[in-house]
Amino acid sequence: MTVTKQTSEKLVRDFLGSWEGRDLDTICGAFADDAVYHNVPVKPIEGIAGIRAIFQAFLNAFSEAKLDIVTLAAEPGLVLAERVDYFTMNDGTSVVLPVTGVFVVENDKITRFSDYFDLADFERQSGFKL
């Protein structure tokens, strides 16, 4: 299947929006089995099993998540999404984190997802160590 700007953008918008529903299968359904997820300040995670595990850890730590897109640019197979991520921790603590995500899309699946953000800011707000 041909990857277009429109299909790449829709896949990423749907993935980012899926966090509000908190369904791990839906969230992970956007990824290829051999995808790489890289929170750039830390070591990349390779493969869907590792990605599922870290996303489950996030879901376990946060009672709510909303990933708001500020600016999105798409080309066939490549999407850049500037966001502000809003999380509510299980104890009620709010986390507000500016993030820029880079998504590589092949065959209607995300094959690489790199998030760029201030790790110290995230850890200070959340108490969550990556």
From TrEMBL:
<keyword id="KW-0378">Hydrolase</keyword>
<dbReference type="Pfam" id="PF07858">
    <property type="entry name" value="LEH"/>
</dbReference>
<dbReference type="GO" id="GO:0016787">
    <property type="term" value="F:hydrolase activity"/>
</dbReference>
<feature type="domain" description="Limonene-1,2-epoxide hydrolase">
    <location>
        <begin position="10"/>
        <end position="122"/>
    </location>
</feature>
<dbReference type="InterPro" id="IPR013100">
    <property type="entry name" value="LEH"/>
</dbReference>
<dbReference type="InterPro" id="IPR032710">
    <property type="entry name" value="NTF2-like_dom_sf"/>
</dbReference>
<protein>
    <submittedName>
        <fullName>Limonene-1,2-epoxide hydrolase</fullName>
    </submittedName>
</protein>
